[in-house]
């Protein structure tokens, strides 16, 4: 559905939670990716230039991993800024979903993995309330991405 299921209060608290982690977008984005690659090594296969990296330390130092971590966080940040405008939100999510489905052919389950790691990191750094207020946003993002994938024939 094109309507967002978040109330205005939920949008505000989600933005507050996101701001805390987005302050260090590159470091936190890198941490999230490194955790994903370490805990789900199959996800590395999509990134040809990360394939040879086995140690978390090596990945943390990599400009490419850091660059992509920052890119992921920037994309989510754009979505978070438009949680109260479903048209603008979909304007960001739709091309992103299409690109990952058609060009990059990335399994949509990886979006859930990334979102879960972000929530985990939020909880570790800022506590359960922070995580709880962002959980609905990750569900919203994953739901929309999954429907875009279905439209693209996944």
TrEMBL record:
GO cellular component: sarcoplasm
Listed InterPro entries: Globin (IPR000971), Globin-like_sf (IPR009050), Globin/Proto (IPR012292), Globin_lamprey/hagfish (IPR013314), Myoglobin (IPR002335)
Chief location category: cytoplasm
Keyword Oxidoreductase: yes
Signal sequence, start to end: none
Presence of the UniProt keyword Cytoplasm in the record: yes
Annotated Pfam families: Globin (PF00042)
Transmembrane parts of this sequence: none
Compartments in which it is found: Cytoplasm, Sarcoplasm
Stored Gene3D superfamilies: Globins
Molecular functions (GO terms): heme binding; iron ion binding; oxygen binding; oxygen carrier activity; superoxide dismutase activity
Function of the protein: Monomeric heme protein which primary function is to store oxygen and facilitate its diffusion within muscle tissues. Reversibly binds oxygen through a pentacoordinated heme iron and enables its timely and efficient release as needed during periods of heightened demand. Depending on the oxidative conditions of tissues and cells, and in addition to its ability to bind oxygen, it also has a nitrite reductase activity whereby it regulates the production of bioactive nitric oxide.
Family: Belongs to the globin family.
Protein's recorded name: Myoglobin
Species the sequence originates in: Dasyornis broadbenti (rufous bristle-bird)
Lineage: Eukaryota, Metazoa, Chordata, Craniata, Vertebrata
Encoding gene per record: Cygb1
């Amino acid at each position: 559905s094109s309507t967002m299921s978040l109330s205005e209060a939920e949008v505000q608290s989600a933005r507050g939670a996101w701001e805390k982690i987005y302050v260090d977008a590159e470091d936190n984005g890198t941490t999230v990716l490194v955790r994903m690659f370490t805990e789900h090594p199959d996800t590395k296969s999509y990134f040809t230039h990360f394939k040879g990296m086995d140690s978390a330390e090596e990945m943390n130092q990599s400009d490419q991993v850091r660059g992509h971590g920052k890119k992921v966080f920037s994309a989510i940040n754009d979505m978070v800024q438009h949680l109260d405008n479903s048209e603008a939100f979909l304007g960001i999510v739709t091309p992103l979903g299409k690109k990952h489905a058609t060009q990059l052919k990335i399994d949509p389950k990886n979006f859930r993995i990334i979102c879960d790691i972000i929530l985990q990191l939020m909880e570790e750094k800022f506590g359960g309330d922070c995580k709880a207020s962002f959980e609905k946003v990750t569900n919203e993002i994953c739901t929309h991405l999954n429907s875009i994938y279905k439209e693209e024939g996944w």
